[in-house]
Design goal:
mainly beta; Barwin-like endoglucanases; globular
């Protein structure tokens, strides 16, 4: 059975890096439920939608950063496992996704804390 992704282009938004996820998460994940590849994310309010984002998979690609050349030419797929809270600093305000440091550095170089990205919902 083939799966057809209906979206040709993703949404444009911002991602920042955050510390490790605390368990249990807002999506009721515990450590044993985290995907084996560790590619997880916390949803900002625009993605969270009252918790409907829990378990959703998003394809991410860094499109720009403050530091020239900071985007890594890599596309990754993350699973939403938590809600991103406390995004009140001017830099992080309005971020769509918060990624653990190791996941963030799969799309951006060390020393970068905020990127613009294209994110596409693959499945809920």
């Amino acid at each position: 059975m083939a799966v057809l992704v209906t979206s040709c282009h993703g949404d444009i938004g911002k991602a920042t890096m955050g510390g490790p996820v605390s368990f249990p998460t807002a999506c009721a994940y515990n450590e044993s439920q985290i995907p084996s590849d560790g590619l997880i994310a916390s949803a900002g309010e625009s993605v969270w939608v009252g918790g409907k984002a829990c378990g959703s998979k998003y394809q991410l690609k860094c499109t720009a950063a403050i530091s020239l050349g900071a985007c890594v030419n890599e596309t990754i797929v993350v699973t939403i496992v938590d809600r991103a809270l406390n995004l009140t600093s001017p830099l992080k305000n309005g971020c769509n996704l918060v990624l653990p440091n190791a996941v963030f550095h799969k799309i951006a170089t060390q020393g970068t804390e905020l990127v613009n990205l294209e994110y596409t919902l693959l499945q809920t």
